[in-house]
Design goal:
- The protein contains two helices and four strands, in the order βαββαβ.
- By secondary structure, the chain is an alpha+beta fold.
- The protein has a single domain, classed as 2-Layer Sandwich (Alpha-Beta Plaits), CATH 3.30.70.
- A four-stranded antiparallel beta sheet has the order 2-3-1-4, with helices on one face.
- The longest helix has 9 residues, at 15-23.
- It is globular and about 35 Å long.
Length: 74
């Protein structure tokens, strides 16, 4: 099993709605609104590393998401 950490920048005023939408995605273990260069961070459990793309694409479809960066555990 692997873990993906998705760092998410959102459009102004959208952090809470993005947070709420990400919480509902299957596989998301934790999600936090944070300060710094990113607005939201999501931790995702991956039974297989190849599954991260589908979840990240799902995050990109959320209204208010501007940009993501994904880090996958080795």
């Amino acid at each position: 099993m692997a873990v993906a950490i998705v760092l998410i920048q959102v459009k102004g005023g959208k952090a809470k709605s993005v947070y709420e939408a990400i919480k509902k995605i299957n596989g998301v273990k934790e999600v936090h609104v944070v300060t710094g260069p990113y607005d939201v961070i999501a931790y995702i459990d991956l039974p297989d590393r190849s599954e991260y793309r589908g979840i990240v694409f799902e995050i990109h479809e959320i209204s208010g998401v501007a940009k993501t960066e994904t880090c996958i555990s080795l």
